[in-house]
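Table 4 source record.
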Amino acid sequence: MDNPRDFSKLKKHLQERLYWKPEEIGITQIAGGFSNLTFQIETPLGKFAMRRPPYGEKISKAHDMARECNILVALEKAGYPKAPKPILLFEDEDIIGAPFFIMEFVDGLVLRNRNPTGMLPSAEEFELLSKNTVDCLLELHLLELKNSGLIHLGKPEGYIQRQVEGWIDRYFRAKTNNLPEMEKVADWMKSNRPEKENVGFIHNDFKYDNVVVNRDRLTEIKAVLDWEMATVGDPLMDLGTSLAYWAQEDDPDILKMFNLTHLPGNMTRAEVIHYYDIKSPLDLSNMLFFYVFGLFKVGVIAQQIYKRHKQGFANDPRFAALIHVVNAAGKKAEQSILTEKI
């Protein structure tokens, strides 16, 4: 079997398609992220980005490269300005061992926990950036669906029920440890699922490390990344997932590893809900359910990756700690249910 990290076939293919000399093409992986992989391609025409599934076993349609590329195509047609422009889709697995696509490279800063302190926004900048982030999420949720064709990317009817049942099923299929809180939360969600559903375009993984900010103005969002789970469904499910990632200073440290929202200046989760509420036509009275769902979903994503790590498919050393994320997410969700606080 070919080495999936050997890009000689890709360089030859790019030479045939785009007339770039292989010796003038540089390909390096961009660090960060726990799911689909991103690589930077340096060429005579500048930088591009390549997306491919993670190495090893596929988890779900979230790793469907054609679908993710088609989402970017639809967003471009809809006039959404913050999605990278898609360039080429390759569904032939013979080139790098998996389907992949190439898109526009957006230069900027991605705010991850490993950023040097000097590159982080100040408290005043975080205050404005956190508001701009929620505004960016709202912009997505309010996109026009029918004329743009975005409505064809999902099946909004019955979305909440499918998501609840689907993520519960994924948890038990990926289960490795006995974590009773996750199972209690699963039962609670089945009994407390909202009947009313809203419809909008949703990102499904919206947080700081999936946005690119301007290096010179850290409050300005240039692009949104990682569209692999985007669809049409209830925007409050999307907000709930973002709130699950929106760690606060008083949260367990393990839940702060995905987002920098715990640093001074950022809005609290309650402030995020209030800010979203005053700008959205949606009824946010049942946000406890959506937040609990978000925490459960974060726990399941961590559980899936942890299982792949245990099976030897994902060797990143960060993955060994993800079982603690599952545990913390379950406990946080149960605590929120018992206290009715987000």
